[in-house]
Specification:
By secondary structure, this protein is an alpha/beta fold. It is built from 12 helices and 20 strands. The protein folds into 2 domains: 110 residues, Immunoglobulin-like, CATH 2.60.40; 344 residues, Alpha-Beta Barrel (TIM Barrel).
Length: 496
């Protein structure tokens, strides 16, 4: 009897252990990764406007962009591949000390300074002069965008000399048939670059002195005035309102510089910032930080506010990037995804012009580093290059109405001018802990084929990336398209 009891005990114990082992094995085989669906709805019937052809512009520096660097044609080839629409020259803060007839061999030296011996900094053909610059614009297919130095004339009490210098430049470009349409009036005049920081009232007075003289030489030029970028702060908007109301007969475009989260940008901050907000350095804000709405809302808010003054004034960002942070390091791939969201919002907001800063610069002088489309050592494509390459497909096309039910997947949609191709851009800010499936519901457009190109990286902490195709399927029952978004990726879906 005892023997039978022992037998039954071991029999039941064996069954229990087998069942426990089978259950555990099933649990191990089950994918523990949570699933997340994002629904993107696109209306091909609702066109919001045209996407500008000048959103993938770049900043040059006459000093760092020397002739030797450009001699083999490789940089021009890469930028042409990106359909770079604008090339900004002579640079940013260089503009405030630059004299186009005598470009010297240091960007931070003003030859009008009476304490400078011109023999110490002789003019040289080593660096990019106006003729070299126009040659590169033509090789790239980019429109010239040239900056006029106002601040030297103010600082050294030579304002008429500054006006005359600018006049000679416009005349020279016209006589050479360089077809320079866009001229910007110095760089960040509200900040102390060369002379003192100008007030809006002072800047207005200089605009009114320079522009009529320039337009007397070439009435077809377009003038860009730059001012501080804190549009949603009533104090700063009041300055913009005054500037535009006083000069809208003279200027065509307002330039804001967008550097995201200066000295406190982090990867985690970007992941949580949905949507990505305008975060600017601010001289008189708490902690020197201005936090506004999203870039899209800031841009659209500008256009709404300016309607009552002059609806023809457009908005540009002639310098933009992820701001440096000396306490944080990002891989170039992480930078590229963050830049991709800024570009996405520029598209959605209707920004007229944008030039990433820099193209080339001295890496050691940029703490925290600022990434661009070519690396600073070998001038080879970076992950940012491939972001720009994807975006180049939709420049000049129609922006469509589209919506997403997930804030962590910024997006936009575009339709070709001939109506035969539709694009959907999806930026996945979700990490590997979630598998994201995108469901695309398109109305007003019937596609017979599709393609998905995704920019992704096997290790986001490294400066590597790859463009690869991801399968796209059509659900015949619902008529919706479906694809999987890799974690931390930018995807361009093309429907034809």
């Amino acid at each position: 009897m005892l023997h039978n009891k022992k037998y039954l005990f071991f029999l039941f114990a064996s069954i229990f252990l087998a069942k426990f082992h089978f259950t555990c094995c099933l649990g191990l085989e089950k994918d523990p990764t949570p699933q997340q669906n994002v629904l993107i709805t696109v209306s091909a019937h609702t066109v919001k406007g045209d996407i500008s052809t000048m959103l993938t512009g770049v900043n040059m520096s006459y000093f760092y962009d020397n002739d030797k660097m450009w001699a083999d044609g490789r940089i021009a080839k890469y930028l042409r591949e990106l359909k770079v629409g604008l090339l900004r020259y002579p640079g940013g803060c260089e503009t405030s000390k630059f004299h186009w007839e005598t470009p010297c061999n240091h960007w931070n030296i003003d030859l009008w300074d009476p304490n400078i011996n011109p023999r110490t900094y002789p003019p040289t053909d080593t660096y990019m002069n106006i003729d070299d610059y126009i040659r590169q614009c033509r090789l790239i297919g980019a429109m010239p965008l040239i900056g006029i130095n106002i601040q030297s004339g103010i600082k050294y009490n030579r304002l008429q000399d500054s006006i005359d210098e600018a006049l000679r430049w416009v005349k020279y470009c016209k006589l050479k048939n360089y077809q320079v349409t866009y001229w910007y009036l110095d760089n960040e005049p509200y900040y102390k670059h060369n002379c003192h920081a100008l007030t809006a009232k002072e800047y207005v007075s200089y605009i009114k002195q320079f522009v009529p003289a320039l337009r007397a030489v070439d009435p077809n030029i377009k003038i860009i005035a730059g001012w501080d970028s804190l549009l949603s702060d009533p104090r700063y908007w009041a300055e913009h309102e005054y500037l535009i109301s006083q000069t809208h007969e003279y200027i065509d475009i307002i330039d804001l510089h967008f550097y995201w989260a200066h000295d406190y940008c982090t990867w985690d901050l970007w992941l949580k910032d949905n949507p990505m907000k305008v975060r600017q350095w601010c001289r008189d804000c708490p902690q020197k930080r201005y936090v506004g709405p999203s870039f899209t809302e800031e841009i659209q808010g500008f256009y709404q506010k300016v309607k009552s003054i002059d609806p023809h004034v457009k908005l540009a960002s002639l310098e933009w990037n992820i701001a440096p942070n000396k306490n944080a390091h990002f891989s170039s791939f992480q930078h590229a995804l963050m830049q991709a969201e800024m570009l996405t919002q520029f598209v959605r907001g209707g920004l007229y012009m944008a030039c990433i800063w820099p193209l080339t610069w001295e890496p050691s002088s940029i703490y925290g580093q600022m990434r661009s489309v070519l690396d600073q050592q070998k001038r080879l494509p970076t992950p940012s290059f491939y972001v720009f390459k994807l975006f180049s497909n939709v420049l000049g096309q129609k922006l469509l109405q589209s919506n997403s039910d997930q804030v962590s997947v910024p997006h936009f949609s575009a339709l070709s001018q001939d109506g035969k191709t539709l694009w959907v851009f999806l930026l996945n800010k979700n990490g590997p802990l979630k598998t994201t499936t995108a469901v695309i519901d398109i109305s007003g457009f019937t596609a017979s084929r599709s393609q998905s190109l995704t920019l992704t990286s096997q290790d986001i902490s490294k400066d590597i990336c790859e463009l690869k195709e991801i399968p796209v399927t059509l659900n015949p029952t619902t008529g919706k398209w479906q694809t999987t978004l890799p974690p931390f990726s930018l995807t361009m879906l093309t429907f034809q």
